[in-house]
Amino acid sequence: MARGNAIRVLRQATLAIIAAALLGGTWLTRTRATSWEETLWVTVYPVVAGDDEATARYVDRLTSESFAPLADFVAREAGRYGIDLERPLRVDLGEPTSMPPLPPEAATPLRVMAWSLKLRWWTWRALKDQPGPDPDIRLFAVYHDPVDGVALPHSLGMKESRIGIVHLFASRRMRGSNQVIMVHELLHTLGATDKYDPANNLPVFPAGYAEAEREPRYPQRYAEVMGGRIPLAPDTAEIPASLKKTRVGPATAAELRWTDVEG
Ligand SMILES: [Zn+2]
């Protein structure tokens, strides 16, 4: 009995130490991340979901260059808000990893807690053998076989750990919309919040509109990156085909500290 207790106490202590190490590590990087004075390093770790060979081949062909449009987008948008940094982001391709644990479908607090612990453990294991210096932001890009009508699991970006898990279709045709999803989750890790109504996926006015002042209001030309869609009419919005059709609106810019930066 006593021995069982001792093991349990030890196990809890170990978990607490791991949690503290993870949290401590992330806390140190947090203040630096949104100062926009130095280039932020992002690493994308590709994951092949399932055993589809075409998906594996698609992932094999990825290079750091595949993700250059993400860095270009952030440079362009930060520049529009007067951030004077030539290269706010640098995106590198990391080594492939295994499949991350998926969030629970019925999200009770206990299940979410269990999942987030599993996720922390999985992340630690997935990253411990990655070569090179630690990046500021880590994105796991999970590529799925593009099957018509099949919905992907929800992507997520976590500010606390600066980790994003992005579910994408392994298809050249989807490259543009994949990039929009990646930037959306990437900006979550930097403190940007969603600006769409989860009940109907419509961008919320005005924060989820790239050009809220535009007259007439509809159709909008761009999607606000955290609003997610281009509003065409009060009840219609479409997913942007690429980052060319996507902008960072003023509300998101403020969350990213591109505006109203304290001195
Ligand atoms: Zn989101």
Over all CA atoms, what is the radius of gyration? 20 Å
Largest sheet: 5 strands, mixed
Bound molecules: zinc ion
- How would you classify the helix and strand content by structural class? alpha/beta
The total of beta strands comes to 11
Q: Please state roughly what percent of the residues sit in beta strands, choosing from under 5%, 5-15%, 15-25%, 25-35%, 35-45% or over 45%.
A: 15-25%
Terminal CA distance reads 59 Å
Unreliably modeled segments? 24-28
Brief summary of the model shown:
By secondary structure, the protein is of the alpha/beta class. The chain contains 6 helices and 11 strands.
What does this structure look like?
The chain has helices at about 1-35, 55-60, 70-80, 110-125, 175-190, 250-255; strands at about 40-50, 90-95, 135-145, 155-160, 165-170, 195, 200-205, 225, 230-235, 235-240, 245. The termini are far apart. By secondary structure, the chain is of the alpha/beta class. About 35% of the residues lie in helices and about 20% in strands. Mean pLDDT is about 90; it is low at about 25-30. It is built from six helices and eleven strands. The relative contact order is 0.13. The strands form four sheets. It has a five-stranded mixed β-sheet with strand order 2-1-3-5-4. The chain has a two-stranded antiparallel sheet with strand order 6-7. Strands 8-11 form a two-stranded parallel sheet. The protein folds into two domains: about 40-190, Collagenase (Catalytic Domain); about 190-263, no CATH class. Zinc ion binds near residues 188 and 194.
